[in-house]
Every structure is written in C-alpha cells, then in structure tokens.
C-alpha cells in the first residue's frame, strides 16, 4: 500500500459515467435514478427487468421512464444521459438490429447466458444461432455487452469466467474482429489477460468497484455475508490484484461499470439471498479510494475517459473530489420493487462505515 495523500487534497477527474447500472422498475426507478444522478453524467441501463426489455418498443418505454425520473429528481439530474441495451435472446433477429440503430440512445445488446444471474432465464442458450445478429451489429457499429460466465451446473462457480472466455468469447472475437464488445464486470486474471491479448480497440472490460476492493474473504470469512454476494462472485486475492493492475494501467482497455444492483434487505438476507451489490451511492468515491491505495490517482482520468470514448459520450464536464470522510447510511428507505406500496429497506455497500473521499 502506498502512502495516502493528506486530508483536504482535491482532485479533478472527467465527470464519471457508469456503463453498467441496474435501475430496476416500478417506483424503485425514482429512488435509483435520484442516487445515480448525483454521481454520473451518463449510465447504461441494464435490461434484465421483469419482463425483460427485448424489443425496441419496450426499450423506449423504459428510457422514457428513466428520463422522467431524472426530470423529477433534484437539480442537476435532468442533465443525466441514459444509454440503453436490449436483452439478447435466442429469438433476436437482424430486423431488430436494423430497427434499434434508428434510436441514438440504444447502443446495442446485453448478452446474458441463460440462468447466469438475476432475471436471466430468457438469455442465450445457443450463441451460434446469433451469428447473423452479430454480423449486422458489427456492420452498424453497435456494442455487445456480455455477462461473461457459463451457467452450466457442472462448472465450478469460481471457474465460470475462464470457461466462458474459451468457449464463447475467443471464437466470437475471431469471427467478428471489429465487433465492439464489453466483457462486463470481469472478475479474474483470465479476463484481464485475454483482453490485454487482443489487439485493437474493439474489446473492453468493465470493472466494478467491489471487485477492485474486496476478495472472497469478505463474503465467506467469519460467516456468510449476503451483502457481498454478487455474480460474478468475488474471487481470490490474486484475481483482485490483477483487476486493480488492469484498472490503473492506463491502457484504455478497462472501463468503469458499477453493476449497482438494489435488492430489498429482507430478500437479500434470506435463506436464498439475491445476487447483487448496491454501490450507486458511493461507487465513484470507492474507485478513487482504491486508486489512491496503490498511488495511482493520476490514472483515474484515463479509467473514466476510456469508457466515455468507447461509448461516444462527449462534453467537458469535470468532477472535483476532496479527501474528506463521510459516513455511509446504515440503510436506505427504498420502495419494494415487487410490492410498491410497501416501504422497503436497502443495505448499501459499506453500510455504517466511513468513506475517505467526498464529491464537492
């Protein structure tokens, strides 16, 4: 660990964007948009809602819902930009690709292997059937965002990313060398090494703050801690170190994507708890904190700008942060997504703990 910078130190970075955010649905959208708008210039909204966003019509309805929530939020939020991706299924057609390109907010597809994560039951079961779709996406410059894990029961949960790279991503990159691909929330050194191996600027890896800060000890040591349970699951320390080296490398191949995912406390702390970490309230500060811990604050600008360049997010807005502590709330009052009339509770990442950096 490097020596920390003094309290009161201020830094300025390109205004961050989040290229992987779960806003959910129902009245929960108002709460998630409000929090995200306090930290991000733009956010890529995930389509694994219920029902999933599989058509352009559904996508535009959801986009309007997000935009309306931003307009109703406090000052500053109306300027937030929402990017959209459609939920890829075995039934997705080339005609859908040709229709979606007419809408600037729609940037591509999200590929969920069926059964890999929350609300992924409608995901892809046979990637080869979709090669005509990928060909048209490559032609039109659309982005394929991928949850890069196999979901077969015989594959160990800690090996899912490694297997997926060899079975799906490597053949895909070979077949479509100029298709824009983001391996989202990479969690292993295998993901880092593969992305570094591929030449050019078409393949990126997004990295969450929780995969940079925590290893699997946070989830398993001293008892199972459900609020650290996410998919992809936290891995061993050597993988966390590899992710950190990648994020701070200034290679331009790794970008921000929080995978902020709200779940009601009661369902998170149950006998079969939901996968997902809610970090929408402190993701930027966590990125700053972990970059500082290895003496790489100067690499932050590249990390945030790389994603903006890839997704063509313009503007010259900047964000200033100060080395100043503040305490994360123990819980947030959030509507229950499944029962909107019920007041729910959400336990955020670092609940009740001090953060070291503050947005000013």
From TrEMBL:
GO terms for molecular function: dihydroorotase activity; metal ion binding. Pfam families: Amidohydro_2. One of its GO terms (cellular component) is cytoplasm. The keyword Ligase does not apply. Keywords: Hydrolase, Metal-binding, Pyrimidine biosynthesis, Zinc. Residues 48-189 form the Amidohydrolase-related domain. It is an enzyme of class 3 (hydrolase). One of its GO terms (biological process) is pyrimidine nucleotide biosynthetic process. Pathway: Pyrimidine metabolism; UMP biosynthesis via de novo pathway; (S)-dihydroorotate from bicarbonate: step 3/3. Its EC number is 3.5.2.3. InterPro entries: Amidohydro-rel, DHOdimr, Dihydroorotase_CS, Metal_Hydrolase. Belongs to the metallo-dependent hydrolases superfamily. DHOase family. Class II DHOase subfamily. PANTHER family: DIHYDROOROTASE. This is dihydroorotase. It comes from Triparma strigata. The lineage of its organism: Eukaryota, Sar, Stramenopiles, Ochrophyta, Bolidophyceae.
């Amino acid at each position: 660990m490097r020596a920390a910078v003094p309290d009161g130190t201020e830094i300025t970075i390109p205004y961050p964007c989040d290229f992987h955010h779960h806003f959910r649905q129902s009245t929960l959208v108002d709460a998630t948009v409000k929090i995200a708008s306090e930290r991000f210039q733009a956010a890529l909204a995930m389509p694994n809602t219920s029902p999933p966003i599989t058509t352009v019509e559904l996508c535009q309805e959801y986009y309007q819902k997000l935009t309306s929530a931003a307009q109703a939020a406090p000052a500053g939020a109306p300027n937030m930009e929402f990017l959209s991706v459609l939920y890829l299924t075995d039934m997705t057609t080339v005609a859908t690709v040709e229709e979606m390109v007419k809408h600037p907010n729609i940037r591509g597809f999200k590929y969920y292997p069926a059964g890999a994560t929350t609300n992924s039951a409608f995901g892809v079961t046979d990637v080869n059937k979709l090669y005509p779709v990928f060909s048209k996406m490559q032609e039109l410059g659309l982005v394929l965002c991928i949850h890069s894990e196999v979901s077969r029961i015989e594959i160990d949960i800690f090996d899912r990313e490694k297997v997926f790279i060899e079975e799906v991503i490597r053949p895909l990159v070979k077949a479509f060398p100029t298709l824009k691909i983001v391996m989202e929330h990479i969690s292993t050194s295998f993901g880092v090494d593969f992305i570094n191996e591929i030449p050019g600027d078409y393949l990126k890896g997004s990295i969450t703050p929780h995969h940079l800060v925590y290893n699997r000890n946070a989830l398993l040591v001293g008892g199972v801690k459900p609020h650290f349970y996410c998919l992809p699951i936290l891995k061993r320390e050597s993988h966390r170190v590899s992710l950190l080296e990648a994020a701070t490398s200034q290679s331009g191949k790794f970008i921000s994507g929080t995978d902020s995912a709200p779940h009601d406390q009661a369902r998170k702390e149950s006998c079969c708890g939901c996968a997902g970490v809610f970090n929408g309230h402190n993701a930027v500060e966590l990125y700053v904190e972990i970059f500082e811990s290895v003496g790489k604050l100067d690499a932050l600008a590249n990390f945030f700008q790389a994603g903006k360049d890839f997704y063509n997010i313009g503007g010259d807005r900047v964000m200033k942060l100060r080395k100043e502590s503040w305490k994360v709330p123990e819980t947030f009052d959030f509507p229950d997504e499944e029962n909107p009339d019920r007041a729910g509770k959400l336990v955020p990442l670092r609940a009740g703990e001090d953060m070291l950096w503050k947005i000013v």
